[in-house]
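Q&A log
Question type: sequence-to-structure
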Amino acid sequence: MEHETGSEIVEAVVVQEVAPAGLFGTDDPVEVIERATKVADALKDVIKQRELFTMIQNKAHVQVEGWQLVGQMVGVTAVCVDTVEVDGGWKATVEARTVDGRVIGRADALCTKHEKRGPWKSADDYARLSMAQTRATSKALKGPLGFVVSLAGYATTPAEEMTFVEPDKPREIAPPAALITKKAAKELAQRASEFDLMDKLQLAASHVTGTDVGDCSNVTRAVDSLSASLSVEQADRVMAWISRKADEVAA
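Response status: OK
Response body:
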């Protein structure tokens, strides 16, 4: 819109403020859920594979690295804005900020020598400061991103906040089953070869192991592949399958 005043023309510009979109690029509730679920699905596998969680009271609590990861996935960074020395330790303040500088989360956290559990009673001063910042980081990110972590199937309380409870003891993992010997693998391969079942031998072995056992196109290659893949129990199952197929061929 223009207004003429004497020899000057004054242009009036109307500035319309636009509210920024949410973390997922939309304010539509349905789309937010869909995109958050997609992020959660990707997050779930990475946290599990990289073991970025601690088991406490039979629940998986995500460690600070996991919280930082989900933040990076949606463009949120944790920034420590203040540290204050307190009685026996430190208090840290951290803000969760978007890439355009908006503050969407804020948290304070302490770490002092007065804590009943953990190593902090005798820890160095720098270690208490670092833990205060770590705890505040997780808490600040939990505010805006806790629901994504929940969608991924993890507890929303950060692992660093659960110092009042002892972590669960690691469960004993059974040793892997012993693999068959090359002699046993050779017997298995020769049995399959007698009935022209080498191509099906590979399929059968892959089926019982749940993985690709490798090339079983001839006896020599089958011996190498089977002896590196099959347990004794699995080999028995494959041999039983070959015997059934052999009976079908003989019939």
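Response note: Strands lie at 2-5, 8-11, 53-56, 59-62, 76-86, 89-98, 103-112.
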